[in-house]
């Protein structure tokens, strides 16, 4: 019997938390570059009554994304996309961050947008990090939103001489995610589907723990100590937002980015996290 299919890319804590909220009764295809991670998440979910199947995939490759979509369609129509795959500034070099987080996300949103079921919904995960970078020009924003995905990495603003470090690459990638979601949501809308983005602050996951132990560890610990919430968040709190965005209560929300960061961005601009001049 065919079921509605959920594509989950990124078998991490955030992706799994969201899939557990919205995926019951559907086939959940769990794609990750690490088959070990995909299998581990599929097992936890299957042991809890979900119907999940792991598959190896690489977000930075269009071929791999198309293969994932093809495999998913064997189970039925794709009604949901949860993209929570990514690499952080301490995990990868500039080129890999741009290829996975920026280019790969753009391709995934485009390709799933071509096949998403009428009434379907998608959510992708950007980051509060993109909100701290100074505003780009209107022209740069439009280029990030609408440049054909295969030409994105050739944009002048993304050339190595214009990217300071891995954090800057990550911020550009996450800013691009927000812009792509706006542009793609128009196309998804033509199919009666919605697409949104969540920009989390520090959420305790293996990726964040790598950051706490990485070169910017003190920066991150200071950030959650001095944000209004005074703590990092949890993947389940991100899933609360995803449940709203992906469910009937979110029917009027599309092309949107929701920031969930315990107030860290607010404090960065107007509070104790404001950088000293
Ligand atoms: N944890 C945080 O504090 C935080 C904050 C803001 C944004 N985010 C974003 O949330 C998303 C999920 O992160 P998480 O914290 O759940 O991390 P996580 O480390 O728990 O999961 C990320 C998963 O992505 C997979 N992955 C990495 N590269 C891939 C590729 N090329 N193809 C397919 N899969 C790949 C990893 O193997 C891993 O299983 C990421 O996009 C991250 O940038 C996380």
Overview of this protein structure:
Helices cover 47% and strands 14% of the residues. It is an alpha/beta fold and 277 residues long. The protein starts with a strand and ends in a 7-residue tail after the last helix. It has a single domain (5-270), classed as Rossmann fold (3-Layer(aba) Sandwich). The longest helix is centred in the middle third of the chain and has 25 residues, at 166-190. It has a 7-stranded parallel beta sheet with strand order 3-2-1-4-5-6-7, with helices on both faces. The chain contains 11 helices and 7 strands. The protein is globular. Nicotinamide-adenine-dinucleotide binds at residues 9-15, 32-34, 37, 57-60, 84-88, 100, 125, 127, 200, 202-203, 205-208.
